[in-house]
Specification:
Helix content of chain A: over 70%
Helix content of chain B: over 70%
Number of helices of chain B: 19
Oligomer: heterodimer
Strand order of the largest sheet of chain B: 1-2
Structural class of chain B: mainly alpha
Number of strands of chain A: 0
Shape of chain A: globular
Number of domains of chain A: 1
Largest sheet of chain B: 2 strands, antiparallel
Distance between the termini of chain A: 61 Å
Number of strands of chain B: 2
Shape of chain B: globular
Number of helices of chain A: 8
Chain lengths: 225, 481
């Protein structure tokens, strides 16, 4: 197992993972809606790269399928769908107002990353595979950061990108733990992400036309009195 | 064969609803197709109750007692809500273009299809997709009224439940990982139960928690319930009946499926988690029922309460408690969908959902008042309704197995919730004063739905026909020891 090429691959995967996490941090911190979309695309490319590296390492065709599906849905289809459904005006939005300012957000994010490692440690006791050790904790960390993005954002599109970042995190961990998921599940997952984007995008457009804003964080009419 | 047809017919109906034949065509198509689906579901259920399991399409579709119960309940509300929609949607959208109405029915059929698919898909990964689609396909049905509140509710609904589903996805991937380590490659519920004793507990455990919390969001378990009263109060009444009556039950079914998996694993115990989440949900829902101001929210909180009760019943363990849980699922679905039909008729008659502005309804609109009172008795758990019997069975089973504290707390909250529901509805129906009526009388199809839904509501608390009894027993058996 510990051949030189294998260790080069795992080193490359570690680098990919580090960059993957950085993009997740970027989605938390950035102010422009367009920039968070670009960071999300970058993150998806890194997910693809990791799938390819793992595919070479374990010789699994499934992972190449995951790579193709990820490229197709997340870097091509999602930006296209968002442009079709959400008006250009939303893209230009600069989100000044957030629930937390950026330095405190990053501080919380750091805590979440540590927490991800704490959560992942008992799971890692089960296997020795180097790729699982890299991908699982980083995937969980990216999940946490994505969920945190949803909490601190008030604009609709960044909230959606937070949700998709959570999904990316799950897949980043998933490709390492189940490299041979049945093809049918992969195909189904490939349908799921564009459908989420389409539904949320159309909903954002409805909210925009109806209420003149996409700051969904301000919608608080419904609650207990 | 019936199993496959069950999934094809709603898909066909969805496509037919979109045909440009005007707005009058889509409703009858939906009613007819959902009636056929109900018939097929009944056939599958009786077969599953007799033989234990029905398979189709080379094992891709499968249905045991518990799945058959859920299937039958979904098909039942799918039918009654379709009849209700006919008059209700026409009445709510007098000026809307026929495309709006057609899109409603098209999504309606797809939404029902996704819920029918959850219990019958054998592959667990595909089942996850079906659960995810229940949210995505119903998002626009929740936001159908196109008001600021409805869109807000739809947004929260989609974001929170999808986030929950993605968490659950990681849980399922970890389950598959564990099964593979144990040497099992078949990713079905049956396969998982076989694999569970050999899985590393370090994997099974986090997978269980991720799915419980992730799908618990969709079931409306406290503290992940915050979206539920919003979505279940802002959607059109026909959709509320589906959301509250069967969507929650369908996803709870997935969580209940985990019970036998975790139960056979050495060193793990799902019971305290089921009881803990269940009791907290019942307690908080009871509190919210006391302070609620909107009668559709009242019914929504009652759903949170019922989901909690079923989860506690599953956690109590034993054949008797599980029979109670299955009975409660049936009782909840039938009663809660009836309540939302009653609420829909009431909203049509007086144009508000605020409890405080409805008084003396029995004088101004006897039909809606009667429906509300009957529905309230049924969900609160008064005799002779099914929920009373099922709660009684659950409490008795808990006492018999010596779990006094759990039973004591559950009984206390159930009684308080009963009083809260009855006080609120009593004030609306019989309170001093008289509400202004709007000039509308309920459409015939809505009245017909109330009658149609009232039949099982009134019957199954007193008399459970033998086939249904077999089905409930088979469902309880599928929940494991």
């Amino acid at each position: 197992m510990d051949s030189p090429s294998f260790s080069i691959l795992s080193a490359l995967d570690a680098l990919t993972g580090a960059l993957f996490l950085l993009t997740a941090l970027g989605v938390v911190a950035t102010r422009q809606v367009l920039a968070s979309l670009q960071l999300f695309i970058l993150q998806s490319l890194l997910l693809t790269l990791s799938a390819v590296l793992l595919g070479i390492a374990v010789g699994s065709l499934h992972l190449f399928a995951v790579a193709v599906i990820t490229i197709g849905t997340k870097t091509l289809m999602i930006p296209w769908l968002l442009r079709r459904t959400v008006s250009a005006e939303v893209y230009r939005t600069r989100e000044i107002e957030r629930v937390l300012n950026i330095p405190s957000s990053l501080l919380v994010a750091a805590v979440l990353i540590v927490l991800a490692y704490v959560v992942a440690t008992p799971l890692l006791g089960v296997v020795e595979a180097p790729f699982t050790r890299i991908n699982l904790p980083l995937g969980i960390a990216a999940m946490f950061l994505g969920a945190f993005t949803i909490v601190v954002r008030r604009e609709a599109v960044p909230q959606l990108l937070g949700l998709l970042a959570v999904e990316n995190g799950v897949f980043f961990a998933g490709i390492a733990i189940v490299p041979n998921l049945p093809v049918i599940a992969e195909l189904a997952a490939a349908v799921d992400v564009p459908v989420i984007t389409l539904v949320v995008g159309l909903l954002t457009r409805r909210i925009h036309t109806r209420l003149g804003t996409t700051a969904v964080g301000h919608l608080t009419t419904l609650r207990e009195h | 064969m019936e199993l496959a047809a069950l999934l094809v017919i709603p898909a066909l109906a969805s496509a037919l609803s979109l045909l440009p034949l005007g707005r009058r065509f889509a409703a009858p198509i939906t009613i007819v197709s959902s009636a056929i689906v109900l018939g097929l579901a009944a056939a599958v259920a009786s077969q599953a109750a007799r033989t234990g399991r029905v398979d189709a399409l080379d094992g891709w579709l499968t249905c045991d007692g518990l799945a058959a119960l859920v299937l039958l309940l979904v098909a039942f509300v799918g039918f009654t809500a379709a009849v209700f929609s006919w008059g209700y949607i026409a009445h709510r959208t007098p000026k809307a273009s026929s495309r709006v109405v057609q899109r409603y029915y098209s999504l309606y059929n797809l939404f029902v299809l996704s819920m029918l698919a959850v219990p019958v898909l054998a592959n667990v990964a595909l089942m996850w997709i079906a659960v995810e689609l229940t949210t995505l396909l119903s998002a626009f049905l929740v936001g159908f009224e196109d008001t600021a509140e409805a869109l807000e509710a739809a947004w929260k609904y989609v974001m929170l439940t999808t986030l929950g589903a993605v968490l659950a996805l990681l849980g399922f991937l970890i389950l598959y990982w564990g099964a593979r380590i144990a040497g099992y490659e078949v990713f079905t519920w049956v396969g998982l139960v076989e694999a569970a004793p050999h899985m590393p507990p370090a994997l099974l455990w986090p997978a269980f928690l991720l799915i419980l919390v992730g799908f618990g969001t969709k079931v409306g378990l406290v503290p992940m319930h915050t979206w539920l009263p919003d979505a279940h109060s802002q959607a059109p009444a026909s959709i509320c009946a589906l959301l509250s009556g069967v969507e929650t039950t369908t996803v709870l079914y997935v969580i209940l499926r985990l019970f036998p998996v975790v139960d056979v694993a050495p060193g793990l115990d799902a019971r305290p988690w089921f009881i803990g989440f269940g009791l907290v949900s019942v307690a908080i829902a009871t509190l919210l029922l006391v302070y609620v101001r909107d009668f559709k929210r009242l019914f929504a909180f009652s759903t949170v309460e019922h989901m909690g009760i079923i989860l506690v019943a599953a956690g109590l363990g034993g054949a008797e408690a599980h029979l109670g849980a299955a009975y409660q699922m049936a009782g909840h679905t039938i009663a809660k969908s009836f309540c939302f039909f009653a609420a829909g008729v009431t909203v049509m008659a007086i144009g508000t959902q605020e409890i405080a502005s409805v008084r003396g309804l029995i004088r101004s609109s006897p039909l809606s008042a009667l429906a509300l009172v009957v529905g309230a008795f049924a969900i609160a758990g008064a005799p002779p309704f099914a929920v009373f019997v099922s709660e009684f069975v659950i409490l008795k089973a808990g006492l018999a197995s010596g779990q006094y504290i759990t039973v004591g707390l559950l009984a206390f909250f159930v009684v308080v919730a009963f009083c809260a529901v009855m006080l609120n509805v009593n004030r609306m129906a019989f309170g001093v004063g008289e509400s202004e009526l709007s000039a509308i009388t309920a459409p015939v199809s809505c009245k017909a739905t109330l009658v149609l839904a009232a039949i099982p509501l009134l019957v199954i608390g007193i008399y459970v026909p033998a086939p249904l009894q077999d089905l409930l027993a088979a469902a309880a058996k599928a929940m494991g020891g």
